[in-house]
Design a protein that fits this description.
single chain; about 800 residues; 5-stranded antiparallel sheet; disordered C terminus; alpha,alpha-trehalose phosphorylase activity; hydrolase activity, hydrolyzing O-glycosyl compounds; Alpha,alpha-trehalose phosphorylase
Length: about 800
């Protein structure tokens, strides 16, 4: 059942906020994700402050993780050896509020009014509750939270309280080590969810506190990472805390006082985190860490100012507006807000699949960041895009070692990782996805193309392109047919694993080889360049002449079709069928061949794209949250406007409506990146890495308009679509310093449906003809379902 979109009384549609106006038990974990705050480095889930009202509260720091030895039931050479899992850092968002002897909680207390929100324009979480206390007092609590932007390790929490009569207030502020609390290991039932460690993870190094101030530090038991934490409290009333207690798993600061009628009691909680790796030379590392954390303490008002300034600048570039669709507009802004929260201050680090909003997928970095997130970053925050690519470049030493383990040259990047080592214990859906190498090279090439960053290619880009090209050249081989084949790989569709000549893999490897061969680099000899050129030119691309479509791999068209009478309760298939059952059927978890045709748009004809979409779309389950956005983009290009809008809407509400039933573990950040691509690349038809930026718009008939901005080569390009036209203009004085281009407002040449247009600061409007809806493809009939019933029906 839908959540946000199904109850607009509870979740009113506001353009710049997500609002919950009625508290209803049962959705706490999902809403903790939807109301989370973050800055790419530090994240805090949107849990209520009372422990009884929270389901899966927590605070996370990007990259702060614990390791363990992976135990394989049957071992083999080259298997991943070390697991990695993001750690719940000590959590400051906890209060016990006792009024006249009654502990307030949404679970047990009477609530008169309730409203909480997260403000996209300022980055502030706010929750106001009016309580009818058993003593007869009417008490209102207001909690506000903000994470730092300039001070990225800082968190501020403000709790205020007012009453209609004098009340006795007993308020305890808590810091809780949630990582070492006894919690169910959800991954035993769902591999998408995070597991738990058997032993203690956070070992105390330094525990000190007095007069409302806490200075603490811990070290992870195995990875030997360290975290320091400083917490200060300030109250609006006179007096000192009743007590300050420090412990390795729970620390408290307690205030006991009378709050008079009409007065507002305010408690500010300033929190700062610092992380680093172990250094044996330090005599008292815990005290040093706690002192460093103390330097990062920032007053609450200052954090509010940081957030307001940051989001003012962010939305001036990143906002995307849809005319006449308020509910979709709110959902788009929530998605863009989540993208900002997952990336803004990540630094030279990867972007976890759940950002810093939850522990799902163990906090790992996947190919998601290059294919689904870096398009958004490249065109809205190029400096951040470069940092993500630099984080991949920093993994090259480990990637070269991993390549040797897999008997290939160059570099082999891990399928899922935090620290640069492969953490996927199931190689068929992990290491076999060699296509991550092409995703990284593709993202590097896109960034170079879009930014004009001259230093990037020499410093980072060339290494990524060359080392991945070497991997492809050694992984594949020239067969007796004269073609270049790549065998034993898994493409994006994880329902078809370890195959020969996966089309997506081969198409993207071809791009990778071509881009590397085009480099003029002293480390690339002519003989190696020639091999790359020939491998690209002779790349095997499976094609079925009977169906007249590109096959997902060499054997896909020979597989047994899936039984589409399978009840909905059996989806997602990965939770209900053994992998071998899924692998031997024609069924997709997510777009694969269709994704290849989107990314390598110039390599396929319009007819080839349409026939591929017509064949693969109906047999794609959408069990992956990465699929709907891609299917929508290609439906728009093909001309299926209704289908495109359906897929887009599905993608838009994946988390807001919890359609995959695992939003509790964090925002599907790659899917929110796919929303950006759906709007810019789908409905606006933007394609890049050609001679010039290209637009082929497909504005839905239901929309009045679509507008957005793109940072391209030091310029800020404004784009607006309306029925029958596209308008383009450069925003004056929009140069992006430090990106190798000082073009500023110099004219930019673009293509609109093949027509070259020179765009300057004056708006250029290009008329557009309506796109005809093509006739659907007709394929040779196949037997309708799988299994013995088909055979039985054929008997005479």
């Amino acid at each position: 059942m839908a959540l946000i979109s199904s109850d607009r009384l509870r979740f009113p549609c506001e353009p710049w906020k997500l609002v919950e106006s009625i508290h209803v038990p049962g959705d706490a974990g999902t809403l903790e994700t939807l109301f989370s705050l973050g800055n790419g480095h530090l994240g805090i889930r949107g849990a209520h402050w009372a422990g009884a009202d929270a389901e899966l509260p927590g605070t996370f720091i990007n990259g702060f993780h614990e390791t363990w030895d992976i135990k394989h039931a049957e071992n083999a050479y080259g298997f991943a050896r070390t697991g990695q899992r993001i750690v719940y850092v000590p959590d400051a968002n906890n209060f016990n509020v006792v009024i006249d002897g009654e502990q307030l909680s949404l679970t047990e207390s009477a609530v008169q009014n309730y409203r909480r929100s997260i403000d996209f324009a300022t980055g502030v979480y706010e929750c106001a509750v009016t309580w009818e206390c058993r003593s007869g007092a009417i008490v209102t609590t207001l909690e506000r939270r903000a994470v730092g932007i300039d001070s990225r390790g800082s968190l501020g929490i403000e709790l205020s309280l007012t009453a209609d009569r004098q009340v006795s207030a007993d308020i305890t502020s808590l810091v809780i080590n949630r990582q070492d609390q006894p919690v169910e290991d959800h991954s035993a039932h769902d591999p998408r969810r995070s597991g738990r460690h058997a032993g203690r993870v956070l070992l105390p190094l330094h525990l000190q506190g007095s007069d409302g101030s806490l200075r603490m530090a811990w070290e992870t038991a195995e990875s030997r990472q360290r975290i320091g934490m400083a917490v200060d409290h300030w109250i609006s009333a006179e007096g000192q805390p009743f007590e300050t207690v420090v412990g390795e798993d729970e620390s408290t600061v307690r205030y006991v006082m009378a709050v008079n009628e009409g007065e507002t009691f305010r408690l500010e909680k300033s929190v700062s985190y610092v992380v680093n790796s172990a250094d044996a030379s330090e005599s008292d590392p815990g005290e040093i860490l706690a002192s460093d954390a103390e330097l990062g303490l920032v007053p609450f008002d200052a954090l509010l100012a940081e957030g307001t300034a940051h989001y003012r600048d962010y939305w001036s570039t990143a906002d995307i507006t849809i005319g006449g669709q308020p509910e979709q507009q709110q959902a788009v802004r929530w998605s863009l807000f989540q993208l900002a929260q997952a990336t803004a201050r990540a630094g030279v680090a990867g972007i976890p699949a759940k950002g810093v909003s939850g522990s799902g997928y163990e906090g790992h970095y996947f190919w998601d960041q290059e294919v689904y997130l870096l398009p958004y970053l490249t065109y809205t925050n190029p400096a951040a895009a470069r940092q993500v690519l630099e984080s991949r470049h920093a993994m090259l030493p480990d990637a070269r070692i991993r390549a040797k383990e897999l008997s290939v040259d160059g570099a082999l990047f891990p399928w899922r990782t935090i620290n640069g080592l492969e953490a996927s214990a199931y190689y068929a859906a992990g290491t076999a996805q060699f296509h991550i190498a092409a995703a990284i090279s593709f993202a590097a090439n896109r960034y170079q193309w879009a930014s004009g960053d001259a230093s990037f290619r020499a410093e980072v880009g060339a290494d990524l392109l060359i080392e991945t090209a070497r991997m492809w050249a050694s992984l594949g081989f020239f067969g007796k047919d004269g073609l270049f084949h790549i065998h034993g790989v898994t493409g994006p569709d994880e329902y078809t694993a370890v195959v020969n000549d996966n089309l997506y893999t081969n198409v993207m490897a071809r791009f990778n080889l071509r881009a590397a061969a085009a480099l003029e680099h002293p480390d690339v000899p002519d003989t190696e360049r020639m091999v790359w050129q020939q491998a690209a030119a002779r790349m095997s691309l499976p094609y079925d002449p009977d169906m007249e479509i590109y096959s997902q791999d060499n054997d896909f068209m020979t597989l047994e079709p899936w039984d589409w009478n399978t009840p909905k309760s059996k989806y997602p298939l990965l939770l209900n069928f053994h992998p071998l059952v899924i692998y031997r059927h024609q069924v997709l978890k997510q777009a694969d061949t269709v994704l290849a045709m989107f990314l390598q748009w110039q390599d396929f004809t319009a007819e080839e794209k349409q026939r591929a979409f017509d064949f693969y779309d109906p047999i794609t389950t959408g069990d992956s949250t990465l699929s709907a956005c891609v299917q929508g983009i290609m439906a728009a290009e093909v001309g299926y406007s209704d289908v495109a809008l359906k897929h887009f809407t599905e993608a838009l509400f994946i988390d807001l409506d919890n359609t995959h039933h695992n939003t509790v573990d964090g925002v599907h950040i790659a899917s929110t990146g796919g929303i950006w691509s759906s709007l810019v690349c789908g409905f606006a038809g933007m394609r890049d890495q050609g001679q010039v930026p290209h637009f082929d718009p497909r504005l839905p008939a239901e929309w009045d308009s679509l507008s957005f901005r793109l940072k391209i080569r030091g310029r800020l390009l404004s784009v607006e679509l309306r029925a029958g036209s596209i308008s383009l203009a450069l925003v004056p004085d929009s140069g992006s310093p430090g990106l190798g281009s000082d073009a500023g407002s110099a004219p930019l040449e673009v293509s609109v449906r093949g027509q070259r247009v020179v765009v300057g600061v004056e708006t250029v409007t290009v008329p557009l003809d309506e796109v005809p809806v093509p006739a659907p493809s007709v394929f040779p009939s196949l037997f309708p379902t799988a299994g013995l019933p088909v055979i039985g029906s054929a008997r005479v």
